[in-house]
Amino acid sequence: MYDLIIIGGGPAGVAAGVYADRKKIRTLLIAESFGGQSLVSADVQNWIGTKSISGLDLAKNLEEHLRAQEEIEILDGDLVMKVEKLEGKSFKVITKNGKFFETKTVLVCSGSHHKKLGIPGEEKLNGKGVVYCSTCDAPLFGGKVVAVVGAGNAGLEAARDLFPYANKIYLLIRSDKVKGDPVTFEEVKINPKVEIIYQAEAREVLGKGFVTGLKYLDKINNQIKELKLDGIFVEIGSAPNSDFVKDLVKIDQWGQIVVDHKTQMSSLPGIWAAGDVSDVLYKQNNISAGDAVKGVLNIYDYLNKNK
Amino acid sequence: MTKQVIIYSTPTCVYCKMAKEFFQKNNVKYTEHNVAEDDAAREEMVNKSHQLGVPVIDIGGEVHVGFNRAELERSLGLR
Q1: Is A139 helix (H, G, I), strand (E, B) or coil?
Q2: What is d(CA B54, CA A72) in angstroms, rounded to the nearest whole number?
Q3: pTM assigned to the model
């Protein structure tokens, strides 16, 4: 029986692991991989204490910091599929590889996953011009015409990743506002390859073997329009990985675990959540780490009270 | 018998880097093709995998898209 099982290996999970170990809480951390969603970022410039770091190096640093702790047990390369409530106050955590563990408390730091457009043609042409990892695949679009869908930070960064390669970059924005950081948007806006289309809603990915275009709704004129394209970079945000606790705790309409923002505790005592899987207002590495620490300190108090 | 390992990659692809580090750690010899620059290799990759995303890893004729450590370990007979 563990005192705590931490689910996730991003900034939240790792921060929790480090603090839990220093509090000598008997802990198991289960992570499919380390680093969280920043793993694929070419350059992270807002991880406090570090001027500039690649997503991969950030992931390595996090893993190294976690593994430097003396007592914590780590199960990586496996995925939590289900958390069940047992008699009394404990829980059972079940993984994809069929392992299961009992614990007094759970801290969910499972983050979120890339959202898809959910429009015709997208699934069929996934990997065939439809791209979800811009740093990976941008170099394959040398001299091509592409669209980036989404204008959060990920969308703006995807456009930036494409600057050295693509000939033409359409940036499709669903509303009349840009959600990403103004600093990055300025860079994108002044690049002569970029054409911004506001109030555009992607409707259909076109193409037989590979992408040939995109149909979208121009919401200003209420007209369906078509772009001829070689690639579509989908960056419309993310959806929380909360399925495995959805029968136990309160989840909001976006799938986020509702927490008490003072303690990170969910609606069910014994389960806490932090980072992008929680209903935190701002999804940021630094915030995820801080919130997870808050959660562990509260779990420490809870365990002491419930000895 | 050692299987021939080929990785098709781009210089900025983090999963490609992770795959190469995995090979190095396990003493697996591999040939790398940078498909951002090598058009012939890019065509070869598309023919093998019927798609355009990287990494594509060919292990003795078995083609893998993306980096999945467990899958590569199995394909290489490392476990």
Answers
A1: helix
A2: 35
A3: 0.85
Domains and CATH numbers, chain A: 2-113+238-305 (3.50.50.60), 130-234 (3.50.50.60)
Q: Which two tokens stand for residue A47?
A: 């991880």
Task: Give the whole-angstrom CA distance, residue A234 versus residue A168.
Answer: 16
Assess if residue B42 is contained within a domain. Answer: yes
Of B14, B52, B70, the CB nearest to A56: B14
| A47/B contact by beta carbon, under 8 A | no
The rounded distance, in Å, linking the Cα atoms of A274 and A124 is 35
Tell me the pairing of strands A91-95 and A80-85. Answer: antiparallel
Q: Is B74 left (phi over 0), alpha (psi -120 to 50) or beta?
A: alpha
What is the ipTM for the molecules in this complex? 0.85
Number of folded domains that form chain B: 1
Provide the residue range defining the domain that includes B21: 11-59
Return the residue of B nearest to A124 by Cα.
B51
**Residue B18 belongs to a domain:** yes
Decide: residue A306, CB within 10 A, 0-12 exposed, 13-18 middle, 19+ buried. exposed
pLDDT digits 0-9 by tens, A42-99: 889 899 999 999 999 999 999 999 999 999 999 999 999 999 999 888 999 999 999 9
Selected residue of B7, B9, B13 to mutate for chain A interface (largest A Cβ count, 10 A): B13
Residue of A58, A140, A160 to mutate, interface with B, max B Cβ within 10 Å: A140
Are B11 and A42 an interchain contact pair (Cβ–Cβ within 8 Å)?
no
CB pairs under 8 A between A and B: 59
* Domain membership flag for residue B54: yes
The span from the CA of A239 to the CA of A162, in Å, is 25
Q: List all residues 6 or more positions away from B19 whose beta carbon is below 8 Å from its beta carbon.
A: B7, B9, B55, B57, B67, B72
Looking at the domain assignment, is residue B6 inside a domain?
no
- What element of type H or E holds B47? helix B39-49
Taking the CB of residue B31, how many other CB atoms lie within 10 A of it?
11
Query: What is the C-alpha to C-alpha distance for residues A44 and A56, in angstroms, rounded to an integer?
Result: 10
